[in-house]
Request: fold
Amino acid sequence: QVQLQESGPGLVKPSETLSLTCAVSGYSISSGYYWGWIRQPPGKGLEWIASVYHSGSTYYNPSLKSRVTISVDTSKNQFSLKVNSVTAADTAVYYCARRSIADDYWGQGTLVTVSS
Amino acid sequence: DIVMTQSPDSLAVSLGERATINCKSSQSVLYSSNNKNYLAWYQHKPGQPPKLLIYWASTRESGVPDRFSGSGSGTDFTLTISSLQAEDVAVYYCQQYYTTPSITFGQGTRLEIK
Reply:
């Protein structure tokens, strides 16, 4: 049973860096597929942020690319997201997900609020 | 970017009746080399992650009830719930993965009971 679990601070101050980790169990990241982050601001729809291939290649939403870094740690079977210089617009539920064909396994999501 | 537009934004249907949600892409998501449409549908309930219902436009994910069906090709797609159940109340999203790993979602359709 593939499971993903997000972790990280629920509150981040404006202009600081948001850091989240997604721990994967039941499947080895190094075996394949894309692994990514998707977010949903309050009252809005879903937005793809970034993905990392099992080989380590990274891909970013152009609208966020200048502020975002995704990385993978195969030894810990987890991948991470950093968003720099956050503002209130980055307040959202952040999901990690596995993409085989489509996004078939998701974490439960974690709410990150940007506020001083 | 491929823009996905869903209609309607919200929908109220009586229990046991048919619900139909439409999704239009700004360019074709049909890949000619394999004749597959790179289009998925998700169900999203409050407090839960989105759940994959349909991929390749019409293939049901394992465990998804057969009252859910997907159809369409190219730029126009439809999700149909043949007989609405109370547990189907949710927001439904279409997603194109033609440009994977860069993907885009529709704005969502809120489905309620009439």
Summary: The two ends of chain B are 36 Å apart (CA to CA).
